[in-house]
Amino acid sequence: MRNRKISFTVNNEKVTLHVRPYETLLETLRERLLLTGAKEACGLGSCGACTVIVNRKPVRSCLILTLEVEDAIIETIEGLKKNGNLHPLQKAFMEKGAVQCGFCTPGMIMTAKSLLDRNSRPNRSEIIEAISSNLCRCTGYKKIIEAVEDVCSKE
Question: What is the pLDDT of residue 44?
Fold first, then answer.
């Protein structure tokens, strides 16, 4: 198979690339677009460190081929900051101390953002369910849940 030219949008910018047949979205984001917020961890889709939003849904970028995102709209952690201001979730994670080592934070925030995009007032159970597929070894999730709840209470 040969490389194929595709286009998609990342953080509101149109991108056109020649991609390899088995190139993952994570590889494209990190190695070709230099968007390193999505982390390469398990490579199996188990941990959520590589989560980005594709067409309004959280996806494990290590499991999706770049060829599959042709014409898609992709959001990464780098795209959340607007006009020099952090996204409310980014602020809340810092204020609540929900970042610890920070490795899982981008994927966790993107998962939480996807939830809030669908439901601006989730209850605690919905927050827990949404982030349950993202692994965090440092925080115990309590501060992460509080950060998401804090954003919901300010809207």
Answer: 76
Residues 95, 143 within the same domain: yes
Amino acid identity at 141: Y
- Do 73 and 11 share a structural domain? yes
* Cα distance between residue 143 and residue 28, in whole Å: 32
CA distance 87 to 68: 28
Domain membership of residue 83 (yes or no) is no
pTM of the model: 0.91
Maximum Cα interatomic distance, the chain, rounded to a whole number of Å: 51
pLDDT tens, position by position, 37-73: 999 887 777 788 899 999 999 999 999 999 999 999 9
Q: Which domain holds residue 123?
A: 88-154
Same-domain check for residues 64 and 95: no
Kindly state whether residue 27 falls inside one of the protein's structural domains. Answer: yes
Are residues 100 and 139 in contact, defined by beta-carbon separation less than 8 angstroms? yes
Supply φ then ψ for residue 74, to 5 degrees.
-115, 135
Rounded Cα gap, residues 22 and 9, in angstroms:
20
Say if CB 116 and CB 93 are below 8 A apart.
Answer: no
